């Protein structure tokens, strides 16, 4: 009897040796005469257990991990293909509390299906959202998305349906759907996991958006640092086109919609929506002054929907199960679920999708299990390189938009990076300014010059050069950048610096001679 | 790139290659970055002589094309080494001793970030996030991703890469 074995092809699993395990499984099985069907999935997001091998048994998909290439012959010998006992055996993957306690809506299929198998996708609820959108029509589809309360998961948290309404209201003519897949924030990988683990959900979401606002053309702006996601997305687009889900007549509806991928070229700023549009148009990724909004005058001057990968992949869930079902998750003005990414110095890092409301502490300790180093957790940076550093005293804050804003922090794209007590917060503050200087598009002075001066001043504090004066200078620079920058890069790069100064002032004071 | 390594002038075949790429892409909307990607993928870099060729064929100014080439960190005007090690410098990797790994790599290779070993075997580059933040510290060697790196594992990988002796 042929046994089905799953080994992820997610870049995170590959980075930990999944490809060698797949090869070894095939050759060891062949040598022992065992018949296996090797299938490739995305990652379940339990990265501390990757590479994670799953075997289909009567009792469900039995997982083993973390597996190394060397473990494979012994695992086979001990009955891996029957789901037998072994120190690496984790049991039925779906019953592991870390996963079973999550509320996976957007990530429901990731890790469960073969990302490029359309039948698998449909068998797990795929394309139900699109069929419903085609049935209820453009205006009702937009209303569904408005009513769901879905807000942009890329970072700005703008209500998705309102954006679509604005595009729909524009005069007739060419419109575009753009998918922002320039996931550059450190500590975030949910876009990558979706594109590698469930690419059809992104395609379906874009197609629904296209039908909703009468756009026939979609672009995915994908960062060059994600070659695996590029290959999988490209293959999925070709497969969707082949099956009639993209093209001149989507599902026989008469609607035309197709998607093209544009690769970025290593500029963080191109994750900013107007900069991304400039880049798709083939120019320097300098930001545009708003207004006009992209929804009015976006790509090539036409009304344009700009949504993040997670947002678009959530749209089919909203359409398939209805706005009310989605809105029932979450709290206050943060509706639905949030795919959090737990990263850095943490024992059990990975993807945690839950209804809004989980606290930082629950994420770091209940899911994360504390630091990877075993030392006390001193700080967590939330929302990428422009997000604030939270001290332990703020760890009871719920991970939702307004609660974080109330303490001067932001959720961003949902990445949480954990630091133990060896972190030097002056160094992290200096890095924030250096990163801004490295990535500034140069269009506005506060960002272009402020970040360079900020890094210099923080470097001088580290060297003990006029620390009091330089601290005043840093505070003034931060204020200027926040108030006067044209976009979020210069406008938010001071957040990690200001939060470090506020909550970890001892790291700045100790450099002052005599203190 | 190494100081003093003057770029070789491009050959007629490379010139034809560039013009062929421009012809294939020029009718697409906003083609310039797509063209630059294609040129770099084929020639290993965007040689300075490519700029006026592309500009002329697209009816853009040389300044416009040069401006785009120099804006993006990914585009380079001189070839890299036979292999490329890209170390992630972003926060998640820093929280897992990424800076120590970076120091180790620079020390053992004897080069800094953005430089190539004297034998042309390997270029060391910084990268800002590979999306492998739950497997930090992370790096790419050519097209392969690697996570949970230690100095010892990095040395081993570089030895396997060949042509590199850390």
What is this structure's SSE topology?
The complex is a heterodimer of chains A (515) and B (166).
Chain A: E1 3-8, H1 11-15, H2 18-32, E2 36-41, E3 53-57, E4 60-64, H3 71-77, E5 89-92, H4 97-100, H5 118-123, H6 128-136, H7 138-148, H8 160-168, E6 176-181, H9 190-197, H10 199-213, E7 217-222, H11 227-242, E8 258-263, H12 273-280, E9 304-308, H13 309-321, H14 323-327, E10 330-331, E11 334-335, E12 337-344, E13 350-355, H15 360-367, E14 377-382, E15 389-391, H16 401-406, E16 415-420, H17 425-439, H18 445-462, H19 467-484, H20 488-492, H21 494-503, H22 506-509
Parallel strand pairs in A: 1-2, 6-7, 6-9, 7-8, 12-16
Antiparallel strand pairs in A: 1-3, 3-4, 4-5, 10-11, 12-13, 14-15, 14-16
Chain B: H1 12-25, H2 32-43, H3 50-58, H4 62-71, E1 83-88, H5 91-94, H6 98-109, E2 122-127, E3 139-141, E4 144-146, H7 151-161
Parallel strand pairs in B: 1-2
Antiparallel strand pairs in B: 1-3, 3-4
Helix pairs in contact in B: 1-2, 1-3, 3-4
Major β-sheet annotation of chain A: 5 strands, mixed
Could you list the spans of chain B in which at least 5 consecutive residues all have pLDDT below 50? none
**Multimerization status:** heterodimer
Strand content of chain B: 5-15%
The H-level CATH homologous superfamily of the largest domain in chain A, spelled out, is NADH-ubiquinone oxidoreductase 51kDa subunit
Give the N-terminus to C-terminus distance of chain A in angstroms: 73 Å
Helix content of chain B: 40-55%
Q: Which topology of the largest domain in chain B does CATH recognise?
A: Glutaredoxin
The percent range for helix content of chain A is: 40-55%
- What global shape of chain A is seen? globular
